Amino acid sequence: MADDANPRHSTVLDDPGSRAVAQGYVTAYLDAAEQTGIDVGGAVADLRSLVEDVFEPNPQLRELVVEGLVSRDEQMQLVERAVAPRVPEVLANLLRVLVSHDRAYLLPVVAREAGVKFNERMGRQVVKVFAAQSIDQGRYEHICRSLDAALPFEPIVEVEIDPALMGGLVVQVGDKVYDASVRARLSQLREQLVARRVGS
To answer: How many Cβ atoms are within 10 Å of 101's Cβ, its own excluded?
Structure first.
């Protein structure tokens, strides 16, 4: 969850370079959870909860541990004293590694990417559906069934409202966008009318 009051936090979440670096920690964390016999889904939930329920509501703790406003040694002492006794050992080890590498600021990115990676391992992937207005349950279920039949993985459908679309849907699967909105159709119509005028 990005914090608008914290520009660095938001920037790190949106930075492709940060996501690339975070991937290594994500893989190591998920593998460690699996190797120790921990439910990997639970480990992902624990990591997300640490970010959203512990650090996000406590900006002072977040600034000290995650954002590194103190020395590395002081960060590590805070981890050992305030965090490690309250979380599973595999999660405490992840935080220790991030601090020791001066990359504790990546924790929110690691938490988000861990969810993505876990879904991929389970054959699932988030699909974003943008609509001009809210979608009722019946239509939502129809969209889910249609995407499930069309895609080679189990879609986790997330709906976002964008009134500028005017109608129809825009579906984003990874980096690919399928635009079936009224706005897109009107834009295509305008382009066709302009082309006809130029050609006449």
So the answer is: 12
How many structural domains does the chain have?
A: 2
Nearest to 107 by CA among 62, 157, 141: 62
pTM summary value: 0.69
- Position 137 pLDDT exceeds 60: yes
- Residue ranges of alpha helices (H) inside the chain are 7-14, 16-35, 40-49, 59-65, 72-78, 89-100, 107-121, 137-150, 182-199
Shared domain for 86 and 183, answered yes or no, is: no
> Same domain, yes or no, for 59 and 138?
no
Contact (Cβ atoms closer than 8 angstroms) between residue 171 and residue 177: yes
For residue 169, which phi and psi values (nearest 5 degrees)? -135, 155
- At 155 the pLDDT is 94
**Same domain as 18, residue 100:** yes
CA distances from 144 to 103, 140, 147, 159 (A): 38, 6, 5, 11
